[in-house]
């Protein structure tokens, strides 16, 4: 049996000083939720869903309740999940005003022959099956309203942090990756970033491992970052995994004028990496039955 591991992130970006403590608390709670699933014999797939759901319900993160608005003042969300055992994935993009977007992505993976559904048709598919909490009241926060008003008034704001995600390795040795996001503050309506894109926003493979990315979606998409990171650390010594992953993240960031870029990954042997090129990235890790550790990397 394999020692189960889960790693979560709360987004690469800039975290306001008054939110830094809650960012660490939130990621620790998410890792603990996923760990509980793993210790009960649950799958990596179920563990990453449980972890991401905690982050979607936490208004401090840019996903679910707490997501940012697009230029029309509308909440448009993306999410995805992938598992290693059969390389199945599911994703949704551009879904309006939904709190638990990761559940829609899992529905696509498990109940269709497709990988990605978008917009109103993705929402209709989920509603017909009784999945998802929809409505502006499910996702609106005073933080989102204030940030939208500030940008509309011409003030430049850092997008506090972009995307939440999780990767897990279960006792059977299977891996999964998941991510959920509200996207970029004041984005053009219909804009989709890396999060729901297999290979860029996430990847899970039985020999390579699992990876979930965060940061500027256009940069991550261009470099197919999740798959590239797993390829870069494949077969190297365990102590080389983090330096190699960090080097790749810095390369991508530098090619995009210092854009925020980050990722978490797990190899099949349980080696983990948590790296970013940004002001901050909150994260947490739980291995076996040990208490989750968490932090805010700078």
Automatic annotation (TrEMBL):
UniProt cross-references to Gene3D superfamilies, sorted A to Z: (Glycosyl)asparaginase (3.60.20.30)
Keyword Protease attributed: yes
Gene Ontology CC entries for this record: cytoplasm
Matching SUPFAM superfamilies: N-terminal nucleophile aminohydrolases (Ntn hydrolases) (SSF56235)
GO terms (BP aspect): proteolysis
Alphabetical UniProt keywords: Autocatalytic cleavage, Hydrolase, Protease
Site feature: Cleavage: 162-163
Annotated binding of substrate, by residue: 191-194, 214-217
Residues the record marks as active site: 163
Gene Ontology MF annotations: peptidase activity
Nucleotide-binding is among the record's keywords: no
Signal peptide (residue range): none
Residue spans crossing the bilayer: none
Pfam annotation, one family: Asparaginase_2
Name of the protein in question: Isoaspartyl peptidase
């Amino acid at each position: 049996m394999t020692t189960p591991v889960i790693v979560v992130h709360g987004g690469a970006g800039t975290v306001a000083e008054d939110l830094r403590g809650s960012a660490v608390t939130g990621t620790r709670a998410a890792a603990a939720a996923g760990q509980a699933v793993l210790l009960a014999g649950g799958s990596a797939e179920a563990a990453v869903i449980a972890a991401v759901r905690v982050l979607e319900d936490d208004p401090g993160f840019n996903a679910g309740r707490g997501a940012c608005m697009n230029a029309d003042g509308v909440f448009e969300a993306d999410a995805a999940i992938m598992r290693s055992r059969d390389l199945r994935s599911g994703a949704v993009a551009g879904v309006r005003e939904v709190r638990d977007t990761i559940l829609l992505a899992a529905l696509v993976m498990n109940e269709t022959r497709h990988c990605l559904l978008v917009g109103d048709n993705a929402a209709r598919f989920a509603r017909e099956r009784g999945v998802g909490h929809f409505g502006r009241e499910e996702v609106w926060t005073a933080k989102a309203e204030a940030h939208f008003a500030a940008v509309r008034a011409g003030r430049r704001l850092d997008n506090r942090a972009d995307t939440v995600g999780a990767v897990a390795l279960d006792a059977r040795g299977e891996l999964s990756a998941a991510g959920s996001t509200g996207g970029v503050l004041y984005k053009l309506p219909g804009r989709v970033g890396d999060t729901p894109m297999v290979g860029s926003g996430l990847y899970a493979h039985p020999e390579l491992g699992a990876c979930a990315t965060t940061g500027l979606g256009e940069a991550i998409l261009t470099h197919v970052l999740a798959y590239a990171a797993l390829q870069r650390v494949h077969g190297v010594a365990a102590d080389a995994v983090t330096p190699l992953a960090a080097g790749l993240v810095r390369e991508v960031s530098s090619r995009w004028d210092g854009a925020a870029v980050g990722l978490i990954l797990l190899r099949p042997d349980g080696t983990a990496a948590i790296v970013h090129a940004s002001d901050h990235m909150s994260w947490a890790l739980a291995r076996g039955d040990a208490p989750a550790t968490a932090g805010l990397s700078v």
